[in-house]
TrEMBL record:
Residues 225-365 form the GGDEF domain. It catalyses: 2 GTP = 3',3'-c-di-GMP + 2 diphosphate. InterPro entries: Diguanylate_Cyclase, DUF484, GAF-like_dom_sf, GGDEF_dom, Nucleotide_cyclase, Rev_trsase/Diguanyl_cyclase. GO terms for cellular component: plasma membrane. Its EC number is 2.7.7.65. Pfam families: DUF484 (PF04340), GGDEF (PF00990). Gene3D superfamilies: 3.30.450.40, 3.30.70.270. It comes from the Bacteria. This is diguanylate cyclase. PANTHER family: DIGUANYLATE CYCLASE DGCM-RELATED, REGULATORY COMPONENTS OF SENSORY TRANSDUCTION SYSTEM. Transmembrane segments: none annotated. Its cofactor is Mg(2+). It is an enzyme of class 2 (transferase).
Amino acid sequence: MTARDLEAEIRELQRRIGVLVEEAATNERLLRRNQERELTLLKTETLAQLIEAICDGLKASYGLEAVSLLLVDPQHEIRHLLIAEQLNLEDFPGLLFADSLIGMAPQFNSFHRPWLGPYMGCDHQLLFSGHEGLRSVALIPLGRQDRLQGSLNFGSADEKRFSRHLATDFLAHLGIIASVSIESVINRARLVRSGLTDYLTGWYNRRYLNARLKEELARAQRQNSPLACLLIDLDRFKSINDEHGHLVGDLALREAAQRVDSQIRGSDAAARFGGDEFVVLAPEATMQQAMVLAERIRRAVCEAPLIVSSGARVDMTVSIGVAAIVPSRGEPDLKLAAQRLLAQADGALYRAKQAGRNRVEAAGCAA
Ligand SMILES: Nc1nc2c(ncn2[C@@H]2O[C@H](COP(=O)(O)OP(=O)(O)OP(=O)(O)O)[C@@H](O)[C@H]2O)c(=O)[nH]1
């Protein structure tokens, strides 16, 4: 080999090394960016943040035309948790729910690894509704320990972006990270909610009611609208416990809660305030409207006895104190206004009890 040949070979080797170094640097950059995206998902604390990070964040950072997140939610639990977080589901068109993955796309019939391939309207339109011009898709299973909790779906206008022969390891890894993040924020949301709900009736508890009352007062103040408060107490509940036992007492509490619930609107807030005491907040209800509602509730509770499995018949009645307020714009302390509203309802409840129970009494309107 001549010296010139040797020099040419060295130059060629140097060129190849240069290409390899550049590839390694590009891979490292990509790896670092992927790690950053995955960390963003893992760091989210609420369901709302996570859904935004997935649906909007991944779409922007991967430069995709569409991203959807399909969650299996047969008991509607995730939806309830999201609503409890005050999230408006309509703000996230990419967020989809189903009782099962089957039927949502044929690829889900046997779904253990990410599926990459051409977009087909007949197969994938449920996952990307409202998106046009998609040419290729990646469907990534979400779930751990053989339990599918949903799928993360990427849609691209580039037909080569997701093709069948591409490696799927990176997407499978992203799926695992997304699954862990989803599980973690759902558990966190469950914990928060369990601190705000009553185990016996499933209703919100006093802590939640106090927070909600302040929010509703602030809203009523902004809109210059009334807010009514109904304080509902079972009559002679102690004697139900004494006569039939504590378990039947629990059943009566649950039944009474359901009968109250059947009379109120979705925008009303209801909570178990204490032992046999419930509160209903009715936004935008005047005293007159609240009295009509309270009378409906009173009748619904007493109209039929509760028949328990032993055949025993438990008659239930409630007394209700009603108060309403239109918080003035000048009202500086909504905490005080909340206390005043509850105290007025409590005063009216006391009068209902004194007057013989199974009746509704109104407090004087507060300014
Ligand atoms: N079974 C059951 N009983 C409860 C629960 N929480 C509180 N109680 C009972 O509910 C009863 C409430 O009694 P009070 O509200 O003081 O009085 P009352 O017998 O309802 O009579 P009035 O309110 O004056 O009509 C008490 O005996 C409590 O022990 C519960 O979760 N389950």
